[in-house]
Amino acid sequence: METSFIILLAIGLAMDCFAVSVTGGAANKPVFSQRLLMALAFGLFQAFMPLLGFLAGQGFIEQIQSVDHWLAFSILLFIGGKMIYEGIKSKKEADGGRAIKNFFKWHALLSLAVATSIDALATGLIFVPYENLIWQAVLIIGTCSFLFSLLGSYLGSYCRGKISFRAELFGGIILIVIGAKILLDHLVLT
To answer: Going by C-beta distance under 8 Å and a sequence separation of 6 or more, which residues neighbour residue 33?
Structure first.
């Protein structure tokens, strides 16, 4: 696994954070400290969850190594498909005129940070056979989520109703492509 794949994985995972941040920036008028708090919460949770998944997977490393490529493909296909589905569903719900809540209250922020990072928990299993890359992955995933969240909140505020970008769809497609690449590389090389 190369650093470029970790960066693409991080971008794919950060799309949930980005989408929520854009929505939060558009729905509310956050000040810099609120934007920073959201970005920190999303970045920390996105970084912590793969580490937690990795640690949980350490107990059954022998069983994972023989099917790691299928496991990575399945996880990324599921997460990517879920993100695409949620992107389509959220567009339909937005068209229905759902009520907007304050994304920057501490309890909403915490629940959003957990919700956007659940997918990252499963990706930690992908790194079980690549133990030497877990800290690099944690750093890249956390940093990418932080930056995309900060950017998203500003973009949401700036664009308030002007444009519509479906980040979940983009992120889902990236994750599925990465999963397919991992599977194809393993099947072709063996």
So the answer is: none
Q: How many CB atoms lie within 10 A of CB 119?
A: 25
* Each residue's pLDDT tens digit, 86-133: 777 765 555 444 444 566 777 777 887 887 787 788 788 888 888 888
Closest by CA position to 83, among listed 144, 164, 9: 9
d(CA 172, CA 166): 10
- Please write the tens of the pLDDT for every residue from 144-159: 999 999 998 898 888 7
Residue 14 has which token pair?
């950060």
Nearest to 124 by CA among 50, 47, 43: 50
Separation of alpha carbons 113 and 169, rounded Å: 19
The amino acid occupying position 61 is I
- Torsions phi, psi of 179, nearest 5? -60, -45
Q: Is 132 exposed, middle or buried (0-12, 13-18, 19+ CB in 10 A)?
A: exposed
